[in-house]
Specification:
- This protein has 2 domains: about 1-150, no CATH class; about 160-220, no CATH class.
- It is elongated and about 90 Å long.
- With about 240 residues, the chain is of the alpha+beta class.
- It has helices spanning about 25-30, 50-60, 135-145, 145-160, 170-195, 200-210, and strands at about 1-10, 15-20, 40-45, 65, 75-80, 90-100, 110-120, 125-130.
- This is IS4 family transposase.
- Keywords: DNA recombination, DNA-binding, Transposition.
Length: about 240
């Protein structure tokens, strides 16, 4: 099996970094290879648990938001007052500053903040971050927005023809996935460059239909222009006409 790793920018709605590895490669191992941008916020799930990487993110003046593993022991240092705890689809139950309470060699010399959220569906999740400035609701919304990358994977599988592979060796699978991601990126670039407002799925269908036509992308969803200088036919458009070669 193979695993696809993506750093996704939800504001630009486009992948920033992409890597394909064997299925047995640990997620955190790939995360540590990504160049950290100062001021950026990295949101990931508990599969990317690595204290050294989290520390590197904090030292680079960046922010991480994640879910701690259940085995992670945290000591509460201070409790924050909950102001306007209701978010979009969730409710903040707890907001406190914590530190790692492990007695082993594990170290995480980073100011930490733990949030407990209750979703409208009824389940409760715990978030861990080094962001001490944003409100609890803003941090909860950041993690909720992480779902967009799952929608990205679903969209690619459904509309970019990678449910079935043309070849089954390592190189063939990689090439097909990279081709699909390049197509996705080009579609997103085209929509932004031409201020396309129609849904991306409709735009994708129109691009497929017009691949071999000379047509402006900005006018891809509009009917062809009428040439007023062309003489009108002398016969009725409903009448059959015979042509001789």
């Amino acid at each position: 099996g193979m695993k696809l790793h993506i750093v996704y920018d939800p504001k630009a709605d486009c992948p920033r970094v992409l890597d394909i590895t064997d299925a047995n490669v640990n997620d955190a191992q790939i995360g540590r290879t990504i160049a950290i941008e100062a001021g950026a916020t990295y949101v990931f799930d508990k599969g990317y648990c690595h204290y050294g990487w989290w520390t590197a993110i904090a030292k680079a003046d960046a922010i991480f938001v994640t879910r701690p593993k259940t085995s992670m022991v945290l000591a509460v240092r201070a409790t924050r007052t909950l102001e306007a705890p209701k978010g979009d689809g969730f409710l903040i139950l707890e907001d406190c500053e914590v530190s790692l309470a492990s007695k082993g060699d594990s170290k995480l010399p980073v100011p930490l903040r733990r949030l407990v959220l209750k979703r409208d569906q009824g389940d409760t999740i715990t978030l861990l971050t080094n962001d001490l400035d944003r409100s609890a609701v803003e941090i909860g919304q950041l993690y909720k927005d992480r779902w967009q990358i799952e929608l990205l994977f679903r969209w690619i599988k459904q509309h970019l023809k990678i449910r079935r592979f043309l070849g089954y060796n390592d190189n063939a699978i990689r090439l097909q996935i990279f081709a699909a991601m390049i197509a996705y990126a080009l579609l997103r670039i085209a929509t932004r460059a031409n201020a396309i407002t129609i849904p991306i799925l409709r735009f994708t269908d129109l691009v497929i239909q017009c691949l071999f036509q000379r047509k402006s992308i900005a006018a891809i969803d509009k009917p062809p222009p009428v040439n007023l200088s062309r003489p009108k036919p002398k016969i009725s458009p409903d009448q059959m006409v015979f042509s001789y070669a």
